Backbone:
């Protein structure tokens, strides 16, 4: 089961983000209209933002590829 951890500034990352301190993934934050993504290893280097609908479609396609065992 994946758990989601909330950082002190409101960003979330999955418990499946790697060993140790879990710094091997991206973090996300969102609102009803936007999704923001940043590198958990370098959170101050920059943030990408996407329309919420586009980000939802992207995540759904990753999940589907994982279910089919396809590389992403």
Residues:
């Amino acid at each position: 089961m994946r758990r989601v951890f909330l950082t002190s500034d409101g960003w979330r990352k999955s418990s499946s983000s790697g060993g140790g301190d879990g710094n091997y993934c991206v973090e996300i934050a969102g609102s009803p209209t936007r999704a923001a993504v940043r590198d958990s290893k370098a959170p101050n280097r920059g943030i990408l933002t996407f329309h919420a609908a586009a980000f939802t479609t992207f995540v759904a396609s990753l999940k589907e590829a994982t279910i089919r065992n396809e590389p992403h």
In short: The chain is about 20% helix and 30% strand. Helices lie at 52-67.
